[in-house]
Design a protein that fits this description.
Neurolysin, domain 3, 7 strands, 54% helix, 5-stranded mixed sheet, disordered N terminus, mainly alpha, 6% strand, two-stranded antiparallel sheet
């Protein structure tokens, strides 16, 4: 999951923002600064709905029905003004710094701007437009400068440092100690101790990066929107009926009635490459998709990558680090890029060895059918499907008939009920504002007590202006320090909507993704923490909970109740389920290798001197040195690698999915070995208590040890993927 916001200004702005720069010293007294903050807040233009507190039911909800792009820039400017006044008041408090008057007040600061970013996130991810992108380009550097004025405010840092070094720290709760550590760490790691000249350069770098990240993201989106392939009836051979109907609908929506639209997104590309018998078209669709941001035109991202890497490198050199990855991983579970790469190196040889086996199987079928080809990247999915049918008699299109989007949603609710005691009830249409007619909302309550937990929004379908992929986010997180706040959580996907009146059918991989993202939502909904900063994530840990939830898709309880044929309503046959389970590690070479290629390249980009990098050549040369199979490309080629180059959340940290997968595999074995299996009450109770409810209020490594009784073992991952396992004396990750 990637947060769709440019930044999170929640009440600890400090814990949520990455690198920033110096605030000018304020000459005002603490008293006058406090008065100024109150005056600014009192003068806030609350006629601007983007700034206003949420109104309506459920403790207030975002006014998505009143979003007006004309309000965005004024709201951002006013929100920044209010937030800066909040922080200046804290920095200039004449009283000695304490947890309450410094850290807690920082938790409260910036609430108006945080609400603005709820709406910003919707425009950026769910309903982008050229008009919004113009505002985004203009405001990204301004937002970066604003962040700098907070995280490098010398007086504010001194107060945080004083609390961090105080003897009173020992008397605070574990959560309170952790948010103090996070606040101090963000200041210290983001230039608070630099001299004034270096602080100024640090701030300038951040502003330049903010603009480049935005441009990178918008370039990818432009290529996704600009390249749509329209095909005709004669070119449909092999494509499933459900896909054909959906493609016809998409073409009609784009004014091309009578044709079929293959959009430049994974949800459209993947099934086309799997089923189309037209090799020439497969190559065209493949090249178009994997060339996003790499077409030598105004939307080309190669030069942007070099600029981004150069600036990141310069910035961390100011802080005394050798490379960006060293700085980034210091406070992650991996701690060092060497540890992260070590995990990659343990798995990579087995992955590419499996690819060699998979390609041999595919080539044998192509030869037997007289196709007279050598397997190429645009052939991989097509012939892999043939191998699947031959080896396991498993037809992905047959499986798809039992994977209805609505039924899978019910399955997720069932799992949430069994593990978390949650009950989901549809909210009557019109009661809660939404930003698009496709968005539906559910009320979440505790099944036993009836206590209201929060709302769950679902925006499932692809459309123009919506970024590709799937993600989860919150519009409000659970806290108790200023009165109990309920959760407003959201899942967002890009499924191809079924034809009018027909079920939306998805692939098994997409069903896993659906469960994955719902795992993030459950992580939000299950939270039991006091402070907003406890929701900040450790990137190589936050994917763990969502990856783990995927495992419940294959439980008998889900299979027997919710996987029913979209036409007949008949349950999926046991023989077909057996085939699915037997084929669970099928094509694992492809899936692991395409992901790991991206993760390894990310680490290489951020541990290499940028002066030595020309992105297009660097990608080719490094992958060749790794022995990358020529039949596969990176899951995210460099020029479209938004996780890494459209922001810094996953930069030098894309390996985190694999790190989290080790935890996932190990935790799944705890359930598999329990008397009650995946619904074992005792293990489930530990799951909720230590892996979901605690969020980031406890060190993730310690939280996992409390759940499992030990550290995770990488061998569990190898077993999961069907790779050879050699147990060692010290087999902890």
């Amino acid at each position: 999951m990637k947060k769709p916001l440019l930044c999170f200004v929640s009440a600890s702005v400090i814990a949520a923002l990455s690198a920033c720069s110096p605030a000018p010293e304020s000459a005002s007294t603490a008293q006058s600064t406090t008065e100024a903050a109150e005056q600014v807040s009192a003068q806030a233009d609350y006629d601007n709905v983007l700034l206003a507190e949420y109104q309506g039911p459920y403790g207030g909800v975002p006014a998505f029905d009143k979003m007006d792009l004309a309000l965005l820039k004024p709201a951002l400017e006013k929100g920044m003004e209010i937030a800066l006044a909040d922080y200046e008041a804290i920095a200039n408090n004449p009283e000695p710094a304490t947890f309450e008057n410094t850290i807690v007040e920082m938790e409260r600061a910036g609430s108006e701007l945080n609400r603005v970013f709820t709406y910003w996130g919707i425009w950026a991810s769910n309903k982008s437009s050229p008009e919004f992108r113009a505002i985004q380009r203009e405001m990204a550097p301004e937002l970066s400068a604003f962040q700098s004025k907070i995280t490098q405010n010398a007086k504010l840092f001194e107060r945080v440092k004083s609390v961090y070094e105080s003897d009173a720290l020992a008397s605070l709760t574990e959560e309170e100690q952790r948010i103090i550590w996070m606040a101090y760490n963000e200041f210290a790691r983001n230039g608070a101790m630099l001299n004034e000249a270096d602080k100024a350069r640090y701030a300038q770098i951040n502003q330049e990066l903010a603009a480049l990240h935005t441009q990178f993201s918008n370039n990818v989106l432009a290529d996704e929107e600009n390249y749509v392939l329209y095909i005709t009836d004669e070119q449909l051979d092999g494509l499933p009926e459900s896909f054909v109907k959906a493609a016809a609908t998409m073409a009609e929506e784009r004014g091309e009635s009578g044709k079929y639209a293959i959009t430049n997104t994974r949800s459209s590309m993947d099934p086309f490459l799997t089923y189309s018998t037209n090799r020439e078209l497969r190559e065209k669709v493949w090249r178009t998709y994997y060339s996003r941001g790499d077409n030598g035109d105004e939307f080309d991202n190669n030069e942007l990558i070099k600029e981004i890497l150069t600036l990141r490198h310069e910035r961390v050199k100011l802080l005394g680090y050798d490379n960006y990855a060293q700085w980034r991983l210091e406070d992650r579970m991996a701690k060092t890029p060497e540890n992260a790469m070590d995990l990659m190196n343990k798995v990579w040889p087995a992955a590419i060895a499996r690819v060699e086996e998979e390609v041999a199987d595919m080539q044998a079928i192509a030869d037997a059918e007289g196709d007279d080809i050598t397997i190429m990247p645009w052939d991989y999915r097509y012939y892999a499907e043939k191998v699947r049918q031959e080896k396991y008699a498993l037809d992905s299109n047959e499986v798809k008939q039992y994977l209805q989007l609505d039924k899978l949603r019910e399955a997720m609710f069932y799992v949430a009920g069994r593990l978390f005691n949650f009950e989901f009830t549809p909210v009557k249409e019109g009661k809660v504002p939404v930003f698009h007619e496709d968005v539906k909302v559910w009320e979440v309550n505790d099944k036993t007590s009836g206590k209201f937990i929060g709302l769950w929004y679902l925006d499932p379908f692809a459309r123009e202006g919506k970024r590709s992929g799937a993600w989860a986010t919150t519009y409000r997180s659970y806290t108790t320090f200023d009165g109990e706040k309920s959760v407003l959580s959201s899942n967002n996907s890009n499924f191809v909507k079924g034809a009018p009146g027909e079920a939306t059918l998805i692939s098994w991989d997409d069903a896993e993704t659906y469960f994955h993202e719902f795992g993030h939502a459950l992580h939000f909904l299950a939270a039991d923490v006091k402070y907003p900063s406890s929701h900040s994530g450790v990137r190589d840990y936050t994917e763990f909970q969502s990856q783990l939830l995927e495992r419940w898709l294959l439980t008998d309880e889900v299979i027997n109740q919710f996987l029913v044929h979209y036409q007949t309503g008949e349950p999926i046959p046991p023989a077909l389920v057996a085939k699915i389970k037997q084929a669970s590690t099928f094509n694992e070479g492809f899936k692991t290798t395409e992901y790991m290629a991206s993760a390894i390249m990310d680490l290489l980009y951020h541990t290499t001197d940028p002066a030595l990098i020309e992105p297009d050549a660097f990608e080719r040369e490094q992958l060749q040195a790794l022995g990358m199979p020529e039949e596969i490309v990176m899951r995210h080629r460099s020029t479209q690698f938004g996780h890494v180059f459209s922001g810094e959340g996953y930069a030098a940290a894309y390996y985190g999915y694999m790190w989290a997968e080790v935890l996932t595999s190990d935790a799944a074995e705890a359930f598999a070995q329990a008397p009650g299996g995946f619904y074992d009450e005792e293990v489930g109770e530990r799951l909720v208590k230590y892996l979901f409810a605690v969020r980031n209020a406890m060190d993730p490594a310690e939280a996992y040890r409390k759940f499992r009784g030990r550290d995770a073992k990488v061998e569990a991952l190898m077993r999961d993927r069907g790779f050879p396992v050699s147990e060692s004396k010290d087999d902890s990750k």
